Each structure stands twice: as structure tokens, then as C-alpha cells.
């Protein structure tokens, strides 16, 4: 299955990988800035999000991204990932370094992180609500947890819509197929990497950024004192400037 996606602009290819609270619509504020900077921008919905259905067989998100690039005739791209999308980007870059030109990771997750007390409590509460069938309350829990104080009401409503849709897709009756796990060694990543964390996010994600800055050679960590977990949606213009500056250095458009 080819992931649902859209393509805009011309130039070197960027792949935008969404947070697992969202889908590819989270990147709407970045699209004009990145295409204007001279990039071909590919946005996709991971399986079970947006317009991509749940898998009908065992799957791997990084392999799905590689298959999408193959279908588009792209040999090498820069990856921009938020949260769970960053985790996918990290696996792609570690397993397929020859295809990875640069990494920009916003409040990224990693596969082997042991959650801290607050993040674990959030996960337990979400599980309890979903097991009780209260999708509306689970959705509101996610909106409250993941959006920082700088976000406006329209942004909160979009996150609410995306998260509710993801729950509805993922909880619909049907056969479940697990993801295929691969070992991921961050130290083998060769692409230039930008690691962004937010002061108003769970502390786990700052800890992850600090850890990755030590594991990925030549990487750079930027901590935003105003940001929550989704800075690209909370203050898009500020994040767009950071992304474009990094990409122009690490993966310049012709």
C-alpha cells in the first residue's frame, strides 16, 4: 500500500512526517514557506492516520516511507519529523543512511525511551478512557497534553479533529496487524540533524533531544522556551525560519 500523500513545489525533496496526535494536515503552516524556499515537499499520512487506512498485514513505517519515495522516483530526501514521525525518521536514517540527506526532528520520540512519571501517567489515563469507550474524553486529554500555551483556538480545534479521526480509524473493528520492529542504532546516522525541544512539553522530549545530540555526530539541539509539543503549529513563522535556515545549510536547494 502506498501511503496517502500530496506533493507540492519543485527542487530537492523534503518528506514531512506527522506527530501521532495529528496527520499530514499539521504541516499546512509549513508548506508555503518550504516550497518558497525551493523544495519539493512530500507530506504523507502514516498508517491509521488521515487518509491512510489501517494495515492489512504486518508493516513498518520506515519501510512505508521508503516505498513512497520509490513510487515518487526519489532516491534521497531530507526528513522533517514531529514526535512519533520523528521516531520514524530516525529509523529511516539509521537503516537507510544513503537515502537521508538531513533530519529536522521536532520534539521527537525514540523507540526505546522509558517514559517518565508524568508521561506514563498520561498514557495510563488515555488507556483507561479508551478502554471505557470514552473517545471524546481521550481526545480532549490529548489536546490538553500536547498543545503549548502559544497555540490559538483554531490550532487546538485542528488537533482535536485530527486526533479524534485517528482514534476512530484505529479503533474501528477489524483484524489487527502489528508493526515489524528493527533495531535502531542512532550512532550510525550520518545526516546533519537538527533537534528541537520545547519548555512546555513533557520533560521526556528534552531528555531525548539531549541524548540524541550526543549519539548523532554533528547534530544541533535547539530548545524553545515558548514551545509545547507541537511548535510547528503553535508558532509556525518562528519554526519555519528555523527549519529553512537549517535546510539551506544542510540540504540546499539548487
TrEMBL record:
Q: Which Pfam families match?
A: Abhydrolase_1
The cellular component terms of Gene Ontology attached to this UniProt record, alphabetical and capped at eight, are: membrane
Question: Looking at the keywords, is Transport present?
Answer: no
> Could you tell me the keywords of this UniProt record?
Hydrolase
List, for all copies, the residue spans of the domain called AB hydrolase-1.
12-236
Under the GO molecular function aspect, what terms does this record hold?
hydrolase activity
In Swiss-Prot or TrEMBL terms, this protein is called Alpha/beta hydrolase
